[in-house]
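Allow me, if you will, to draw on your knowledge of protein folds for a short while. I have a record of one protein: its chain in single-letter code and its fold written as discrete structure tokens. I remain grateful for any guidance, and I place the record below:
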Amino acid sequence: MRRFTSLLLSALTFLALLGTWHIAAGLRIYPEYLFPSPLSVAIGILELFRSGDIWQYVLVSMLRFGAGYGAAVILAFPLGLLFGRCLLLWKAFDPLVQVLRPVSPIAWFPLVSLWFGIGNLPAVVIIFLAAFYPILLSTVAAVRNVPSRYLKVAANFGASRGKTIWGVIIPAAFPQITVGFHIAIGSAWVFLVAGEMLGVRSGLGYLIIDSRNNLRTDLVIVGIILIGLSGLVIDRAMGLVERSVKRQWGDA
């Protein structure tokens, strides 16, 4: 019953938003080509479906996201474990991380373009930068917050360093680590779209900027909708993986 109520409320909210949009478009405050109606956007979606371009836009963006986000996980997660376990090492690197972390990936665009040219690689690098610091910092904080009694029990049972890390520290820190993973998904997806607006001719970001240049605001809105839906799918997929891992550890 609770799930049905939640779905009903979500549907009503969506319908209210759609109705408000339809009324606002009907007032003709802006011409149709600047503020398209929901029907025009629906026609734009059908146009992309019929041409088959919609799958190319989404797939290319997903592949870029997977490459950049995966690279960030592969590097930031083990570094976070290392820094979380070795306080002296973290104190040495913490000032550098805190200086670089607030720098927006957009600020790196000029250098990334010069170093990596144009094409897929600059967009992947931007995604990597956007995802790296949330994963690193959440992992460091999670490992440092593992209760010391867990480590003492592991030591009393003669657990090796590897077994302590994989059998005690990571399961105990996992809930907080996944918070950083989710934050990194949102940040990386935002900057993926920004990266695709510069120097590439494919992906959802390119769809938006190309449609704007051609005054196809209906397709601009289609691109925005696809970005939101794709981000939702990625976040839900991460949630499924998270719950699967917890079940293996008997924590769900």
